[in-house]
Amino acid sequence: MTSIIKKPLAVLTLSLLICSTSFADEASSSEKTTQTAKLSKEQRFIVEDHSQKGLGEQFSTVSQKSIEEKIQFLLDREEITAVIKYYALTMDSRDWDFQREIFTERYEHYKNGKFLAISIDDRIALREESAVKWASTQHMASIYSINIDGDTAFVKSTLHARHFPEGGKRSQERVMIGQYRYVLKKTTKGWRINLMRLVPSRKK
Q1: Same structural domain for residues 56 and 154?
Q2: What is the mean pLDDT of each run of 10 residues along the chain (204 residues)?
Q3: Are 49 and 30 found together in one domain?
């Protein structure tokens, strides 16, 4: 008799556990959706992981514009591309003064799922601290998406970065691949990086 009672109780307990887990997952998902809804368009673009949405949007949108608007888009795209390439260059050359010129004065830092506004000087201090750990680095950026919305540009590029230690021991090299995500703002001095994120898909 006892074993007969225990069996239904065990099934009921398991069912309740599954339901509570399901409700917890739904609550977690709902909370995450609510948090995302509170973010700005720029921040939502940054937090997405490896999203390929909108890759062709720039071409379909620009094709409907006037000749003058198309020319302006091409000029903006060329400048934005140069800024991204310069960023990779300054990381390897460690030309921090040059890097300072391609960022907005107030920069938004994204780390551990949180956004924090910091000065460009603080950001570069973080990069300097990281760079001294390596004898040299090689950052390669291939841009595959630039979408311009007024004075804001949303950019995606490949991430391929190699880090070489002192002494050149191959076993201690660090390779990272993935995606860079940038938000640039058009200022009186031209396009400048305002927010960015490194989205690694592999780290060795």
Answers
A1: yes
A2: 51 48 47 61 84 62 84 94 95 94 88 86 89 90 89 92 83 86 95 90 61
A3: no
Asked whether the beta carbons of 83 and 102 are under 8 A apart, the reply is yes
> Which backbone phi and psi does 108 adopt, to 5 degrees?
-100, 120
The tally of domains found in the chain comes to 2
Among 47, 76, 73, smallest CA distance to 60 is for 73
Per the rule left: phi > 0, alpha: psi between -120 and 50, beta: everything else, 68 is: alpha
Longest dimension (CA), the chain: 86
Enter the pTM of the model: 0.74
pLDDT at residue 111, rounded to an integer: 80
CATH number for the domain spanning 164: value is 3.10.450.50
